Amino acid sequence: MVLYVLRYYPTLTETFVYREIAEICSRGIDVEIAAIGSRADGILQDEFPDVPVIRPPRGLAGWRVAGPAAWMLRRPDARSEWRWLRDRFPAKIAARVMWLAIEAENRGVTRIHAHFAGEAAEWARSIAALLGIPFGVTVHATDLFRPRAALPTIVAEASPLVAVARHHRRVLNERYGAEAVVVHCGVDPARYRIEPRESASPALRVVCVARYAAKKGVDSLVRAVEELPVSAVLRLVSDAPAHLGSELTSVGALPPGQVPGILAEADVFALPCRIAADGDRDGIPVALMEAMASGLPVITTAVSGIGELVDDQVGWLIPPDDPTALTAALLEAASSGPERRRRGEAGRARISAWGFTVKDQVDGLLAAWGDA
Length: 372
Fold this sequence. Notes:
Elements: E1 2-8, H1 15-26, E2 31-37, E3 53-54, H2 66-72, H3 78-86, H4 91-106, E4 111-115, H5 119-131, E5 135-139, H6 142-145, H7 151-157, E6 161-163, H8 166-176, E7 181-182, E8 204-209, H9 218-227, E9 232-237, E10 249-251, H10 259-264, E11 268-271, H11 286-293, E12 298-301, E13 315-318, H12 323-335, H13 337-353, H14 358-369
Parallel strand pairs: 1-2, 1-4, 2-3, 4-5, 5-6, 6-7, 8-9, 8-11, 9-10, 11-12, 12-13
């Protein structure tokens, strides 16, 4: 039995985790989810793995953790874990971790995994230590580039330590002396429709699927499209504020199940990622993989691990925070339908050939686990 400890469940932004869990279950492995909390955007999530979900008591029901926590503290070495937790969390949170450890033991959990080396990984580490079982963590982006104080401990003790890009593996080694295995996130190409992208309108149809976060560069994309000297429209699938919308830009978040249809109606996908002022940056955005799987050429930037997926054979790879380069890429995309199609077809082929599928993702994770 594998227990996934997730900071938020459900949330709209971690569909790649849910697809991973669903694929693992399809291999005959039992999985359960421990959800620390949830996000309001989870109401839009429409891809849920069919697994049990454990929610540690909180609020008025929080008293239920006291007895199990006290029982756990009678065990050898439990007090040291309690101190480690209390250095990072209030007592009521530490007690919830102890409660979850007992739940995991009662359910026969033999391995724990977390995505993002943040609070969920800290819970996973302590539960694994209390039960004497392995825990692993997949490091993504903000958890590495805006680290919590416990990150050195997490990366030193995780088994396996997984990075979503070779770039991240280098950073983990250089900063912490840690050895990580690279397991790319992936998509299921069969989910994405390949259709003729002819349109009665001469406007270039640009699409972007992204959270409204500084590192995504959404603001620069909106400006670039609106200032283009040729006709263009932007469909921004995002939680971006409505005021970004105009006669050229439509804004709104969508359930993941509706994204393939939006991609099928576009000419080019654009995501001008950047390094934010606080150091945050992307890994390899799954949205790029979805666009490429749908046969779209992509315009994006040479940030972090993005160059491990995208080059000028499948789109336009430009410097970050370079409005001139972004405009030039959009204009080149607008100028030639055949070139867009050529790069889009190459991108779809690359997804499978280079191992950016959910199947490859789970193959890599199971190999890293070794005992699953």
